[in-house]
Amino acid sequence: AKAEGRNTHRRFTQAMEQKALERQGLLAKLRGALGRGELYLNYQPQFDLATRQIVGAEALLRWCHPELGAISPERFIPIAEESGLIVEIGQWVILEACRQAAAWQRAGLPGITMAVNLSAIQFQRPDLCESVAGILATTGLPGQNLELELTESVLVGDVERVVNTIKTLKQQGIHLTVDDFGTGYSSLAYLQRFAVDKLKIDQSFVRNMATDESSSSVVRAIIRLAHSLGLKVVAEGVETAGQTEQLARLTCDEVQGYHFGKPMDAEEFTALLGSRTTP
Ligand code: C2E
Ligand code: CA
Ligand code: CA
Ligand code: CA
């Protein structure tokens, strides 16, 4: 039994080492990815549930490596975060997303809000507000057309610092959304303390809404909570007409998901926006 335990332990250690090596390999490849043009953005449309108009896009980072092919953000973003690379990459994401939104605006396409995901490390940088202001100035995108998505984990840090950062961003007209709402561990008290604009219901609740009574209760509670605090609420991961109807009945404001549009490249999104202007 002892030998068996040792074997299990050795196999476990080998698996860990294997994983660490994989991560190191991926990190080495990720380091030059931005400079080699392997990173790009996809855009997923967001719709107003009442009018069914496109009101926004979420920018989602993609990495296509010449040999490995497409690597999921679920795999490379944690590596970028641990290594600190996310600061440089995240900066580029904001710039590229704002540049694209401004280009669509200049082309006379329907005005939308561009939502960009921010990692905790980016949010904690003292130069965040300044660099976002610089990007808005460079690209000419009005602040009110930019939305930053933060996870609950961002909001548990130094309260005063978080309050000030949010205030400075909002002075530029920027909107703030709490992403993956309902999955974090933080208390709800931060919703009063931090002047966020929108809650994004995590897709796990949306997915189970039709079959699981407790998920639909959570969705209903989040929408009520948001509205009672004067916040908007968006549901993500909406995949069916049934989920859409249920969300409409619960007076959810906006929806995003495969039922309405998958993440797509800039060209496809341009066509989607264009098709909306023709009556
Ligand atoms: P997220 O911010 O929660 O983004 C939503 C994810 O759900 C995206 O996965 C999107 O493609 C996927 N999705 C959208 N609609 C549906 C649907 O109807 N059904 C299902 N099953 N999935 C749907 P993606 O693009 O793989 O991104 C994964 C995560 O990577 C994101 O989760 C976000 O946390 C992170 N991420 C992506 N881009 C960035 C970025 O530029 N910066 C940072 N910091 N994180 C990013
Ligand atoms: Ca997001
Ligand atoms: Ca999310
Ligand atoms: Ca997520």
Report on this model:
- Residues 23-277 form the EAL domain.
- This is cyclic-guanylate-specific phosphodiesterase.
- With 279 residues, the protein is of the alpha/beta class.
- Helices cover 50% and strands 19% of the residues.
- It is built from eleven helices and nine strands.
- The chain has helices at residues 2-31, 73-83, 85-106, 120-124, 128-139, 159-171, 190-193, 203-208, 213-228, 241-249, 266-277, and strands at 39-48, 54-65, 69-71, 113-117, 146-151, 175-181, 198-201, 232-235, 254-255.
- The protein has an eight-stranded mixed β-barrel, surrounded by four helices.
- α6 (159-171) links the parallel β5 and β6.
- α1 (2-31) packs across α2 (73-83), α2 packs across α3 (85-106) and α3 (85-106) runs parallel beside α5.
- The N and C termini lie far apart (75 Å).
- Residues 179-180, 200, 236 line the site of one calcium ion.
Task: Give the topology.
Elements: H1 2-31, E1 39-48, E2 54-65, E3 69-71, H2 73-83, H3 85-106, E4 113-117, H4 120-124, H5 128-139, E5 146-151, H6 159-171, E6 175-181, H7 190-193, E7 198-201, H8 203-208, H9 213-228, E8 232-235, H10 241-249, E9 254-255, H11 266-277
Parallel strand pairs: 2-4, 4-5, 5-6, 6-7, 7-8, 8-9
Antiparallel strand pairs: 1-2, 1-9, 2-3
Helix pairs in contact: 1-2, 2-3, 3-5
The chain binds ligand C2E and calcium ion (3 copies).
The site of one calcium ion has 4 residues, from loops.
